[in-house]
Amino acid sequence: MSANTAELNYAGKTYRFPIVTGSEGEKGIDISTLRRDTGLVTYDSSFQNTASCRSSITYIDGEQGILRYYGYPIEEIAGRYTFVETAYLLLHGEFPTKEQRAQFSRKLNEYSLLHEDMVHFFDGFPRGAHPMHILSTMINALATFYPNVDLLSLKEDIDTSATRLISIVRTLAAFAYKKSIGEPMVYPRHDLSYCANFLNMMFNSPVKPYKIDADIVDALNLLLVLHADHEQNCSTTAVRVIGSAQVNLYATISAGISALSGPLHGGANQEVMNMLRQIQSRSETVDSVLARAKDKKDPFLLMGFGHRIYKSYDPRARIIREMCAKILDKLHVRDPLLDIARELEEKALKDEYFVDRNLYPNVDFYSGIIYHAIGIPEDMFTVMFTLGRLPGWIAQWREMVQDKNRKIARPRQIYTGPALRHCPEPHR
Ligand code: SDX
């Protein structure tokens, strides 16, 4: 048997399937003809062993703790390239030239204004509505105001719609925050960079002008870059599946936002802060939190720990952990939650339950400490994850819709229900 085929022996027959090899040498069995040849389907709940697509955007090696966007290591991008430059890389496969970046920035500025009729939508949400629900709703509603992405004319549409989404998501997020605190909305400005504009829309006020701090802008750029893409995670899979039915881009992204809001996914960054605060308030201790996380009878999980792919330290968490102290020092912020987080990490990484299961801090474990230091309220933490992940979702969606072999996503199942039976007379 060659190294390029896999053999399956079933019911007295031998079947051969080709081995596909990725550009980093990872291998998979191409079972595209499995059911036709054998009558079998595979069973892999939660797709733990299943590659759903071929993709050239992001590469992760979970054992080595490697993350690269189009081959560039995250460690070289973070802190060196802005989020706008990284978004351009994800959308186009290369970093922008000076002119391309200027053009992209002009477009981002041009598309930053929300249609004035949409501003009134915010009046309809109840006070206290979670900003992720507002964001998912408003992004979906964009399709009623702006031309949907016409799959037949992808080029100009996708660039326009992608740029509009990446720009306007800031405005929507900031407006949702201002609405939640009863302050007047602050409109985007043409003279501010991507992150500075967002911070200004969030924190400027008629009675207390917001002074833009370059260190805070740098910290936000770093965090958004680190969240920009992560291959076939739960929300990206949702985007690909929904998009495969030729749903317009806005509705597709709205579904991604909903998936990301889950506490096991992007919602974990807010849950980490809740967990740290419980320890700070002495309603929990580090040891009691670890004991609960290990207790199979307790549904509690150590938030910000563990990962489906990383069975080593999440490289993004390592960068954020290192940046935490520097950024808090620069901002002259002292946050006791950072000390608690470090104590929690130190004890967990010495505890055999976590060591045996390869459970390490993930991107959500320390990110909230920095968001908190730059003034982002905790119920906006997952919104920040959305701002970062948006270009990645769009890039993955575009790769899927531009695949000439694309088909609507429709997995099989293993049926476990009742065998054939006939309806009883209705109980009248
Ligand atoms: C993100 O996929 C991505 O790329 C996601 C993401 C991205 O950028 O898009 O990286 C962003 O979602 C990061 C993850 C944020 N979520 C959390 O921090 C929530 C806490 N983590 C867990 O829910 C969990 O670790 C997951 C959801 C992240 C991963 O779930 P898996 O793959 O089902 O976990 P596993 O199969 O590796 O678990 C193995 C064992 C199990 O115990 P046993 O059955 O072997 O006894 O480890 C246990 C799990 O119960 N376990 C945990 C744990 N995570 C796994 N036990 C306690 N606390 C945890 N956090």
Shape field: globular
H/I helix tally: 18
Low-pLDDT segments, ≥5 res? none
Structural class by SSE content: mainly alpha
Spell the H/E element sequence: EEEHEEEHHHHHHHHHHHHHHHHH
Main-sheet strand order equals: 1-2-3
Using the CA coordinates, give the radius of gyration.
Answer: 23 Å
Helix fraction bin: 40-55%
Please report the total strand number as a whole number. 6
The span between the termini is 64 Å
Strand content: 5-15%
- Bound ligands, each once: s-citryldethia Coenzyme A
Overview of this protein structure:
The protein is mostly helical and 428 residues long. It is built from 18 helices and six strands. The strands form two sheets. It has a three-stranded antiparallel sheet. A hairpin with a 2-residue loop joins strand 1 and strand 2. The longest helix is centred in the middle third of the chain and has 27 residues, at 154-180. It is globular, with a radius of gyration of 23 Å. The mean pLDDT is 95. S-citryldethia Coenzyme A binds at residues 230, 233, 264-266, 268, 293, 301-309, 357, 359, 362-364.
